[in-house]
Amino acid sequence: MIGDRIRQYRLQKNLSLSELAERAGVAKSYLSAIERYIQVNPSIHVLERLAGVLNVPVHVLIEEEEPSSATATGDDDHFDPDWLNIVREAMNSGVSKEEFRQFLEFQKWRRQGQD
Questions:
Q1: What's this model's pTM, rounded to 2 decimal places?
Q2: Total tally of structural domains belonging to the chain
Q3: Could you give the percent of the chain with pLDDT greater than 90?
Q4: Domain that holds residue 51
């Protein structure tokens, strides 16, 4: 989850919640809410700021799966930029993860009906 990954990278950098919030220009209370899953859909703008301070690519914070060995070595070629842009657009427009998952499930259901 995003909150866990932010906390993990923050602790790896030996940053307090206050330090990360200040450096990223994000309210400490908002960052705390992200890490505690009170705020589960932070904006891409906030994630970009946090990623910049943590010195990690944004996709590392938003990926659901563990980073692959390719990501660990810095090879980001397997990420389609168009898909990342679609995810950013969805997040910026306020589409929740649950709404996106429902859309995907609907598409799967629709395809099954066409087979």
A1: 0.57
A2: 1
A3: 40
A4: 2-114
